[in-house]
Design brief:
The complex is a heterodimer. Chain A is α/β, with parallel strands linked by helices. Chain A has 16 helices and 20 strands. In chain A, the strands form five sheets. In chain A, strands 1, 2, 6, 7, 8, 9, 16 and 17 form an eight-stranded mixed beta sheet that branches. A four-stranded antiparallel beta sheet of chain A has the order 11-14-13-12. In chain A, helix 1 runs parallel beside helix 11, helix 3 packs across helix 11 and helix 5 crosses helix 15. In chain A, 63% of the residues are buried. Chain B has three domains: 102 residues, Beta-grasp domain (Ubiquitin-like (UB roll), Roll), CATH 3.10.20.30; 126 residues, Fumarate Reductase Iron-sulfur Protein, Chain B, domain 2, CATH 1.10.1060.10; 75 residues, no CATH class. Helix content of chain B is 40%, strand content 12%. Chain B is built from 13 helices and seven strands. In chain B, helix 7 crosses helix 9 and helix 10 packs across helix 13. The radius of gyration of chain B is 24 Å and the shape is globular. The chains are: A alpha/beta, B alpha+beta. The interface between A and B is large, with 67 and 61 residues.
């Protein structure tokens, strides 16, 4: 049995920021199914929000209001307040660690405009901000290599719990296939999102709901699963991210007729309205036949920015356009469409990143979560651009602090290594022994297709019911899949199968929660209930139970400063 | 129909690597990674490789296509077809294969760790950010785009013969700090980087620039470290002496004094190094490869001197 004071699962921004905190006093392990520098935080492009006021006067109060309005008033406002107040210090701290930021003429951290933010508050490193922060944190981990042990290419399979206490995780080494129990006084999940459930997504192949589902199987509900963000600028067909910074720098969205159609949807903010609104506008244009050449994409036009500005502020985007579509945005508009991007929902936590098990806030002792896998909820029904890197770093730091404080006060609990290991071993054996005929690739494609079609930007009861039925039938077929690689050495096939199982179950949770929420709010839009309904649905969904018997409960929203009002831009 | 000729290796089953061919209709707009995924998902689930972001930022899917390291997600598959409609796929070089296209990255990361890959500045920071001008930012802009994919490491010609060489990725990472106005250990860094295995062991072939999928382009970063090392007066090593001797010779005569270069590179007081040169010199003498003993200037040496003057040297 492997033993560490604290085990962190996931080595993106949240996980590494947490590790730095824990390593100040205790022994900490960071487990990642890739390498830290491969984590999907690195794909974030546009910026990280903080009211530094480096280019225009700004305040945490404005940041707070923008975040809550952007989230369609489903955010827990006490958490939002602490989160935006912590923003400047977390940015300065990153800068002091060595993070590379673009600069103003007088040498301060440069800031630019972003959707839904009333002030230019996105601190950035050209158009690779996530990458810059990810590597800065990785550098700190390499510096602290004596107190932080990194397990590269290890997967996490289940939580070890006893009653309301978490005592470790069961993991496996991808290279050898060996399954191990990792005992810990505290466990932190920073496992990221689950955009891979959808056909068109910005997400990496690794974003597959592993953490959220492992927690769910240990009795932790999923909060607000129906709130999935569709980003307005995904590369046509591939879904690859073209940063909102492109619009922050002044890019236009044009329909097939060449019109800046955002004028019809959000006249005051135009292209810089929040993402849910822009994505719906794009989808409406496409659905009503005003896509480019009548097809299912519209144009992102940057030509008027000029080559010099594009090369200074958006060089990576230009290269992505050239490599992936042979379009140079200096001379031609880029074909884009809405793409599944971010999960507002996830493992419910309080504002100290402590995982809670119900609406009353009952804690799972020794278990913490931060970043996209967690739902605090600071983003409510829709996250604003640049608020996710902030979420990951602020709550990563908090999770680290909370776990450290907790782990210092307790001893290792007894763990029955044998049975814990056997359970996971059995799930491996079960897959190895399958000799069905169903293709996992086919099942995965059908899941992605149905989630995009029926649980995407626009939803209704009929679509969602059909979606749930399809997912259930895919789950049955999943058990009769065909396995070809039965070896132990670096068996990526078996991990893809385990990930697919997590995604199928997560898909069912998402669709079930979406069916029950008979209103439209933030990223969740029901064409059959197209208004927000505060009377009945100003509350967080909590999906409890098992995948076969989901039980939906609800949790009140914490409202402190801002009463819900109509949301127009 | 295209042929993907893939180097397979699975020591659990067979100790020797072998090539296997797969046929695939390349879908419109498909990247090399899309095609390899299709092969894995529809033809052979045992095919093993790394991948994650599929947008050229995570650095997982480095592999050799037609002999050169590339990110599979960044290349349109059709652009790689040879005249027989074939693409040959192999694992990255200079690293030990584990299974199929997966190689052992540990030695790569060990070398990155050696260059102290973190900001060193003991001065307590201000309350807000440390300032850095846009010009100072630009000095580390390119090196900070590195995604640690290992493509440069794979195709580095020095590493092929000398695994002590830190390699292009680690050195580009080093420039990220040597060039950073906030880092306080510039002299220590360039001194260490001038030791054997460091910057001066690069042979300037430029292969890493060709293979780099980002603007990081290690060889240019290595040159930048060399300039800083020379400016900082870190001359007490063969590499720096070689560079300085080269410049001195061209400046004074317009051409290389090939008899003096080895001597000056070793250093006049490096007796052991000089003695080591004697057998080579004798062999060159026997093969009549010794350059003329009397070194003559070129006719227009004045013009060369003028160039140096223009460059303010």
């Amino acid at each position: 049995m492997i033993k560490h004071d604290v085990v962190i699962v996931g080595a993106g921004l949240a996980g590494m920021r947490a590790a730095i905190e824990v390593s100040k006093e205790l022994d900490v392990a960071v487990l990642t199914k890739v390498y830290p520098s491969r984590s999907h935080s690195g794909a974030a492009q546009g910026g990280i929000a903080a009211a530094l006021g480096n280019s225009e006067s700004d305040s945490w109060e404005e940041h707070m209001y923008d975040t809550i309005k952007g989230g369609d008033f489903l955010n827990d406002q006490d958490a939002v307040e602490e989160y935006v107040k912590a923003a400047p210090s977390i940015i300065y701290e990153l800068e002091h660690m060595g993070c590379v930021f673009s600069r103003t003429a007088d040498g301060k951290i440069a800031q630019r405009s972003f959707g839904g933010h009333s002030k230019p508050r996105a601190c950035f490193s050209a158009d690779r901000t996530g990458h810059a922060i990810l590597h800065a944190l990785h550098e700190q981990l390499m510096k602290q290599s004596k107190s932080i042990k990194i397990y590269n290419e290890w997967n996490m399979h289940s939580l070890v719990t006893e009653g309301n206490r978490c005592n470790g995780v069961v993991v496996s080494n991808v290279k050898t296939g060996a399954i191990e129990v990792m005992q810990a006084k505290a466990v932190i999940f920073c496992t990221g999102g689950y955009g891979r459930i959808f056909k068109i997504t910005t997400n990496a192949f690794a974003s597959t709901a592993d953490g959220v589902m492992a927690a769910f199987r240990a009795g932790i509900p999923v909060e607000d699963a129906e709130f999935v963000q569709f980003h307005p600028s995904g590369l046509y067909r591939q879904g690859i991210l073209f940063s909102e910074a492109a619009r922050g720098e002044g890019g236009y969205l044009l329909n097939g007729k060449g019109d800046r159609f955002m004028e019809q949807y959000a006249p005051s903010r135009m292209e810089l309205a929040p993402r849910d609104i822009v994505s719906r506008a794009e989808q409406s244009e496409i659905d009503e036949g005003r896509g480019v050449d009548g097809k299912d994409f519209i144009h992102l036009d940057l030509r008027h920015l000029g080559e010099a500005r594009i090369m200074e502020r958006l060089p990576q985007i230009r290269q992505l356009g050239i490599d992936f579509t042979s379009v140079d945005c200096v001379t031609d508009p880029l074909p884009i469409q809405p793409t599944a991007h971010y999960s507002m929902g996830g493992i419910p936590t309080n504002k100290f990143s402590q995982v809670v098990m119900d609406a009353e806030g009952t804690k799972m002792e020794g278990f913490f979560a931060a970043g996209e896998c967690a739902c605090v909820s600071v983003h409510g029904g829709n996250r604003l651009g640049t608020n996710s890197l902030l979420d990951a770093t602020v709550f990563g730091r908090r999770a680290g602090m909370s776990a450290l404080e907790y782990a210092k006060t307790v001893d290792f609990a007894k763990v029955n290594e044998g049975p814990e290991k056997t359970k996971v071993l059995k799930s491996f054996e079960d897959i190895y022994q399958r000799d069905g005929t169903e293709s996992y690739n086919q099942i995965r494609n059908e899941m992605k297709e149905v989630m995009m079609e029926k649980c995407g930007v626009f939803r209704d009861e009929e679509k969602l019911k059909a979606c749930i039925e399809t997912i259930k039938s895919l789950h049955l077929r999943f058990k009769k899949g065909k396995v070809t690689d039965k070896g132990k050495l670096f068996n990526t096939e078996i991990y893809e199968i385990l990930e697919l199982e997590n995604m199928l179950e997560m898909a069912q949770v998402i669709a079930t929660c979406a069916l029950a929420r008979k209103e439209s709010r933030g990223g969740h839009f029901r064409t059959d209930h197209d208004k927000r309904d505060d009377e009945n649905f100003l509350k967080h969904t909590m999906a409890h139970g098992t995948i076969d018997e989901l039980e939906l409960k609800y949790k009140p929203v914490v409202i402190t400063k801002h009463k819900p009002t109509e949301r127009t831009y | 129909m295209a042929t993907f000729r893939i180097k397979r290796y699975n020591p659990e089953i067979k100790p020797e690597p072998y090539y296997e061919e797969f046929q695939l209709d390349i879908p419109e707009g498909a990247t090399l990674l899309d095609c390899i995924n299709l092969i894995k998902w529809t033809q052979d689930g045992t095919l093993t490789y790394r991948m994650s972001c599929r947008s050229a930022i995570c650095g997982s899917c480095g592999m050799k296509a037609n002999g050169h390291a590339q990110l599979a997600c960044q290349r349109q598959a059709t652009s790689l077809l040879d005249k027989d409609d074939t693409i040959t796929i192999e694992p990255l070089g200079n690293m030990q294969p584990i299974k199929d296209l997966v190689v052992d990255f540990e030695p790569f990361w060990d070398k990155v760790n050696k260059i102290k890959p973190y900001l060193q500045n003991d001065v307590s920071p201000p309350q807000k950010e440390r300032t850095q001008s846009p010009e100072q930012f630009r000095l580390i802009d390119d090196s900070s785009t590195c995604i640690m994919c290992g493509n440069c490491y794979s195709d580095c010609n020095v590493l092929e013969v000398d695994d002590k060489f830190l390699g292009p990725a680690a050195l580009a990472k080093a420039q990220r700090f040597v060039g950073d106005s906030r880092d306080k250990k510039t002299l220590e860094r360039v001194t260490e980087l001038s030791e054997p295995g460091g910057i001066w062991d690069c042979t300037h072939c430029g292969e890493c620039v060709e293979r780099c999928p980002k603007p990081a382009q290690p060889f240019y970063r290595i040159k930048e470290i060399m300039s800083v090392a020379l400016e900082q007066g870190v001359h007490n090593n063969n590499g720096a002496r070689h560079a300085l001797s080269f410049v001195k010779s061209v400046k004074s005569s317009g051409r290389l004094n090939e008899n003096m270069i080895p001597v000056e590179s070793m250093g006049y007081f490096n007796f052991k190094g000089l003695i080591d040169l004697i057998p080579i010199g004798l062999r060159m003498l026997l093969k009549r490869k010794i350059p003329p003993i009397i070194h003559k200037s070129i006719d227009d040496v004045k013009d060369v001197k003028r160039i140096f003057k223009e460059l303010d040297q």
